[in-house]
Specification:
The complex is a heterodimer of chains A (282) and B (171). Chain A contains three helices and twelve strands, in the order αααββββββββββββ. Chain A is α+β, with helices and mostly antiparallel strands and 282 residues long. Among the domains of chain A are: 30 residues; 167 residues, Beta Barrel (Thrombin, subunit H). Chain A has a six-stranded antiparallel barrel. Chain A has a six-stranded antiparallel β-barrel with strand order 6-7-8-11-10-9. Chain A is globular, with a radius of gyration of 25 Å. Chain B is mostly helical and 171 residues long. Chain B is built from six helices and no strands. In chain B, helix 3 runs antiparallel to helix 4. The relative contact order of chain B is 0.16. At the A-B interface, helix 2, helix 3 and strand 1 of A face helix 1, helix 3, helix 4, helix 5 and helix 6 of B.
């Protein structure tokens, strides 16, 4: 029967095209970000080697180039630092006294010891190759103790801000899903007015977050610029990490809850280093 | 090794390299956070020179690489790049590509086509992507960026022997 083989031979291009498209669609349909981890892990481990190499080479060149100017700047800074050292020596004597006083006050107020988690510090080595997704890749993997689901934070502007959580871990690298990703959800609380809600990334390129399910009652109490922190519910993220500040409030007449627009604490375009929190080890 | 296999391996490698560069170095020269799509430019070049078969296979292979390095679902970029490679490959031997104007026109259309296909995929498969809609601002930045780079990249890619068109398709 010459039917099918001769048809395939005649329409080689079209048949290959159809097979590949069907394969792509099947991969998309049967994959969500959890079940595709294995093939992604293998591929990521391989290609991250190239990313790491390019990142290191580029870092070496820019480092050498910058080091000349850096040397001059460092000399000036050294002089300034010497002067400041004298000042700090005086301050440190007062600091010891203040620490003792602070400890005593904490005990009096009955505060429990602040939880201190073990951190893994990591450097951002790559981002998404396109403009539609918001991948952050860091240079720490399973060999460094990274596990899927670990929260990532960063220090910017004197505040500790939530970056996201680890979603894919290979041997030496890991992918972080930032809180601005539309698929990211964080149980949150308004720091001053204490109303709970759910913070999610928004569709679009604004980089802003949306806090929903906030009781309408909060409309009179929430202030613009109020800090939003993690509530600790759901146990994915530890309690009290800063997420962002309230920028806009929307109260729709037909809805029972408020929707708040939140500007993240972390400026993701300037993100260089992150700290991965190991919530299982204190 | 046949010339087609060589072309496939070389083009897949070049697109994969472009994607790795996009995820690392190109973020330093991003305009308002938007980076150019060098992989797309290479894919279009391969398609109009070598035809649908090489282009769709290279598009698929490089798309899978992009999916691995991204938070996108596996198959998302592979689908888009296969589609673009196949459609552009149909024009093999029928377009005269001058050094400047045609690369720009071809890449503008390819970027719009990519945006259209990805928007349709995002909409139909409910994929949570933060990226641009069909006519949102970042698309126009990427479009301009790709258009500016296209003539230079086309000139560079002409140096690769295995990517030369077949004799019967030479214009």
């Amino acid at each position: 029967m010459p039917g099918i083989p001769s048809f395939v031979r005649k329409n080689k291009n079209g048949v290959t095209f159809t097979i590949i498209l069907v394969l792509c669609l099947l991969m998309m349909l049967f994959s969500n970000r959890n079940v595709v981890l294995q093939p992604k892990k293998v591929g990521q481990s391989f290609f991250s080697l190239f990313q790491l190499s390019i990142h290191s080479i580029a870092g070496w060149f820019s480092g050498t180039w910058n080091s000349i100017g850096e040397l001059k700047r460092l000399r000036n800074e050294l002089d300034a630092a010497r002067e400041r050292l004298v000042e700090y020596e005086r301050v440190s004597r007062n600091l010891t006294e203040l620490r003792r006083e602070n400890q005593a006050l904490r005990e009096q107020l009955g505060f429990s010891q602040t939880l201190a988690f073990r951190y893994i510090s990591a450097q951002v080595i790559a981002r998404d190759p396109g403009n539609q997704f918001s991948t952050i890749m860091v240079n720490r993997g399973s060999v460094h103790g990274m596990r899927q689901g670990m929260p990532a934070i960063a220090f910017q502007g004197g505040l500790q801000g939530l970056v996201g959580r680890v979603v894919v871990v290979s041997l030496t690298t890991a992918i972080i899903q930032p809180i601005t990703d539309p698929n990211s959800f964080v149980a949150a609380r308004l720091q001053t007015s204490r109303f709970d809600g759910l913070v999610a990334g928004s569709q679009g390129v604004s980089g802003l977050l949306t806090m929903s399910y906030v009781k309408k009652l909060a409309l009179n109490e929430v202030q613009y610029g109020e800090l939003v922190v993690t509530s600790g519910m759901g146990q994915l993220f530890p309690q009290g990490i800063h997420i962002g500040r309230v920028r806009e409030m929307t109260a729709k007449g037909y809805e029972a809850s408020l929707e708040l627009e939140v500007e993240p604490i972390v400026d993701f375009s300037r993100l260089e280093y992150v700290f991965i929190i190991d919530t299982e080890q204190k | 090794m046949s010339r087609d296999s060589k072309a496939f391996l070389l083009s897949s490698g070049l697109i994969a390299l472009a994607i790795v560069l996009q995820s690392t170095l190109l973020h330093w020269v991003a305009v308002r956070g938007v980076i150019p799509d060098l992989g797309l430019i290479v894919l279009v070049f391969v398609a109009i020179r070598r035809g649908s078969m090489t282009a769709q296979l290279s598009g698929f292979a490089s798309g899978v690489v992009e999916d691995v390095l991204s938070l996108s679902p596996l198959g998302f970029h592979a689908f888009i790049r296969t589609m673009v490679g196949f459609l552009y490959g149909l024009t093999v031997g029928s377009i005269f590509v001058d050094p400047i104007l045609m690369p720009v026109v071809l890449i503008i259309i390819a970027t719009l086509l990519k945006a259209l296909i990805s928007s349709l995929l995002v909409a139909f498969l409910s994929i949570p992507a933060a990226g641009f809609g069909v006519f949102a601002g970042p698309l126009w930045i990427e479009l301009g960026y790709n258009a500016v780079l296209a003539p230079f990249l086309f000139a560079l890619l002409r140096l690769f022997k295995p990517l030369k068109p077949r004799d019967k398709e030479r214009l």
